[in-house]
Amino acid sequence: MTSFWAVLSATLVKDIRLEWRSKDALNSMLFFSLLVVVIFVFSFDPLAEESRHIVGGLVWVAFLFAAVVALNQTWARELRNQVLDAYRVSPAPANALFLAKSVGNFLFVSVLEALMTPLFIVFYNLHVLGPAWQLIPIALLGTWALVVNGTFFAAMSLRTRNREIMLPLLLFPISIPAILGMVAGTTAVLTGENSAHFYIVLLLTYDVVFTTASLALFGTILHAE
Amino acid sequence: MKRLFPILSIVTVALLGYALYLALVVAPADALQGEVYRIIYYHVPSAWTAFLLFFINFVASIRYLTRSKASTENAAKWVAIGIGVAGLVAPFLPPVRRLIPAGMEPSAVATTIVLIPALYFLVGKLFPGDRLDVLAVTSAEVGIVFCTIVLITGPLWARPVWGIWWAPGDIRLTSTLVLWLIYVSYLVLRRFSNSAQTQMLAAALAVFGALDVPLVYLSIWFFRTQHPQPVIGGGGSMDPRMLHVLLFSWGAFLLFGFLVCWSRFRLELLKREVEQAHAMESLAGAEDSEKASLPLSRSAR
Q1: Contact B201 A176 (CB under 8 A)
Q2: Distance CA B120, CA B47 (A)
Q3: Separation between Cα atoms, residue B201 and residue A159, nearest integer Å
Q4: How many CB pairs below 8 A link A and B?
Q5: B123 domain-assigned
Q6: ipTM exceeding 0.90?
């Protein structure tokens, strides 16, 4: 067990340090989602009343696309100098590597969301009508849902030709229930018309199911020959 | 075996033709919808066949994934047996019985659930080793074809009856569409993956897809459905004459699906044999050239 946590924290700290020094993923994600927001603002010019109904979808589409940018870089880093091959032959637990990568991506995407949300509020004159605190569990659970599957499928698409395009093709169909939960939950809170409890439970279920499945299958994917 | 295929093909063509005749001529017109409803004789059998094929794909993928280790294979076996035993007993217990919708017999539910482990063991028996993966790719491909038919015939029917092509957020429509998307991404993965690990990756994706379907269903629970209720064991009712035509049509479609799967299965097996032969040939060629180059390298030294 100690080696599990040691590998996990070592990988996580290494990733955060790399990101802190280069800021590759974060900068590209930030700029990318900024572009998405600006394009959305030009495409839809809604009144405050309408924007409450559509902003839930826009926010999550922007975050989803931005997350793919970061997820694509997760494993590419480990391919240089055959780090992943070295990992494969070492006795280190595969799930520690997977969890470290997922938590790292979760942190990066969360930082992005924290920075981008004020922008959405400014551009769309948002004023939350429902219980605003519920946006926090929706955001956390939704981000984890995107990131845990995204990390898994990014590892999967490493083994394919044109892997950059492969990740969204695998990730989006599987993520549809989670995206629906995030969007509908966010809209419910923003408009205050109905309760978001159902969607929080849905996201929680999704997270539990797919975290378990990823942990059960990641070793097989990593060592597949 | 070789003679069976053309015979079965002729039988299938005859059955499909007769099913078309039954659907267009013999079956009575619907009291509310008139003639438009006749598309269900294609729509519903395609849907059942597609779901069956996707389920076979899931079973084959599970077997393929658990195959590598004896302990996981054992565990999967006991899970399958457990599902069978629970499915046999649970529908008759009063608390569970109350959950079963009206019009659905507990014995029918039990039979359906018992089919799951039966299929699991049958697949394992009939498709040993790498053939499991061949079965998985075959059933996914043919399943997508049938699912596409469902997604095309559905809107064709919905336009005159509902007045819209597609009801966004409808539970059946959305879950069928997502299922189709998942299996298309499954085939895309197979196409773009390198040969050696494709089978493992695809099997893992199939398991993810199967886990996703109930969640899709749950996620749109709140939306009301416009789709007619299921004819068999679902609260929907149907004239027995129509039901007979529907079941006959399904039989013809199942046979057709089986034939397509069979030929696709043989094609995939042959393709893999050819690939293997090519690989062996190039290996032998490499050894020969190595031998041939030895004297040269010696003389160079």
Answers
A1: no
A2: 21
A3: 9
A4: 89
A5: yes
A6: no
Are B182 and A156 within 8 A, CB to CB?
Answer: no
- Binary contact (B211, A169; C-beta < 8 A): no
CA distance A86 to B204: 23
Q: State whether residue B78 sits within 8 Å of chain A by CB.
A: no
Helix B131-162 to helix B198-219 angle, to the nearest 10 degrees?
A: 30
B31-58 pLDDT, tens digit per residue, is 777 778 888 888 889 998 999 999 999 9
- C-alpha B221/C-alpha B169 separation (Å) is 10
Range(s) of the domain holding residue B201: 40-261
Q: Is residue B162 part of a domain?
A: yes
Measured in degrees and rounded to the nearest 5, phi and psi for residue B34 equal 75, -135
Q: Residues, chain B, total?
A: 301
CB-based contact, B71 to chain A, within 8 Å: no
Q: Which residues contact A72 (CB under 8 A, 6 or more apart)?
A: A154, A163, A164, A167
How far is it, in rounded angstroms, from Cα A181 to Cα A137?
12
Question: What's the token pair of residue A3?
Answer: 């080696």
Q: Find the helix or strand (DSSP H, E) in which B270 lies.
A: helix B240-300
Q: Report the candidate in A126, A51, A79 with the shortest Cα–Cα distance to residue A43.
A: A51
Between CA B215 and CA A212 the distance in angstroms is 14
Residue B75 covered by a domain: yes
B98-118 per-position pLDDT tens digit: 777 666 677 878 888 888 888
Amino acid at site B236 = G
Number of H helices, E strands in chain B: 9, 0
A71: enclosing H helix or E strand: helix A48-79
Establish if A225 touches chain B: CB-CB under 8 angstroms: yes
- What whole-number distance in Å separates Cα of residue B81 and Cα of residue B92? 18
Considering just the CA atoms, what is the radius of gyration of chain A in Å?
18
Residue ranges of domains in chain A: 2-223
pLDDT tier, B297 (very low <50, low <70, confident <90, very high otherwise): very low
Rounded CA-CA distance A145/A157 in Å is: 18
Q: Are B271 and B134 in contact (CB under 8 A)?
A: no
Q: Measured between CB atoms, does B75 come within 8 Å of chain A?
A: no
Unique residue bearing structure tokens 């050894």 = B287
Higher pLDDT, A200 or B287: A200
For testing the chain B interface, which of A88, A159, A215, A221 should be mutated: the one with the most B CBs within 10 Å?
Answer: A159
Determine the Cα–Cα distance for residues B258 and B271; give it in Å rounded to an integer: 20
Distance from CA of B62 to the nearest CA of A (A): 11
Number of domains present in the structure of chain B: 1
